[in-house]
Structure formats: structure tokens, C-alpha cells
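Our preliminary data section would be incomplete without showing what the modeling component actually yields. Below, a chain of 161 amino acids is followed by its predicted structure, encoded as C-alpha cells that our downstream tools consume directly.
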Amino acid sequence: DELVRLIETLNPENEAGRLTLIARMGADKVHEGLPPLLKAVKASGAKVVWCCDPMHGNTIKASTGYKTRRVGDIMTEVRGFFDAHDEVGTYPGGVHFEMTGKNVTECVGGVVDVTEARLGDRYHTHCDPRLNGAQALELAFLIADLLKRRRDGAVALSEAV
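Predicted structure:
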């Protein structure tokens, strides 16, 4: 109810494209937290763009003291975002990542298997940890697969990748 009231206040004419709602819930909360919001906004008829920010809700402090993110958690939140839209019958409108093409070691996991012990090897960020090129590419392939499966309707998104 509160979200719908905010949308009505910020976009009283219900102009398409005026509002982008960015879900940044974390891998452990997206599956339960997002569907009720999607349902409420859908029922209200509000025209919004839904975007997923799987970075900020998954920031942790590693045992080594570095601020980091787990690639697995980022991927889980992206899957949950797509699953929720599939469940409710709404459309995922975008995904936000913080990344660099450089071979940094700021986020743990992924095909390169950056470990907490290796975070200091090439930790160059001055703010938030970024995905490196290989990790970003891994996520791009995940999203491509989720979009393809959604388009084809071949399997439930929760079974994707």
C-alpha cells in the first residue's frame, strides 16, 4: 500500500517510463519480498519499470577485512528477480551491476574463483567492490539464459542455470 501511494504521488498521471523502481533486497530476501510488491503495483495499474540491483543488498565484510560481494549471492538475487516477475506476470526491466573489465579481485567466487584470501591481490576500488570482467561475463550469460528461457517458456525460471 505504501509503495502504491508513493507511486501515485510521484507519478499522478501514470506516465509510462517516468518511474523506475530498483529492487535491492539481497539474495536472502528477494524471493519473499519482491512478489508482494510486484502484485500490489500490478493490481494498481501503475506503469513502472522494474530494475534489479543485486550488488548493494549483497555487500559483506570478508574475514580478511575487505568489503566484498559473493558472485553466487548476486546470481541468486538476479534469478529471484526474474522468478518473481515470472510468478506474477510482470516484466523485468533492467539489471544494475558495478563492474570493470580489469582483472580485479574485489568480489569473491565466480568461474575465476576469487577467494577471500585473494581479495588483496588486486583490490583497487575506492568505493564499492566491482565484478571483474570474467565475473561480469558470467552474469551476462546468466541473464541471457534467463531471458531466453522466459521467451521460450521452456522451463520455470527457478530451474534456470
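The helical segments are 2-10, 30-44, 71-88, 133-152. The chain has one domain: 2-159. Preliminary results of this kind motivate Aim 1 of the renewal.
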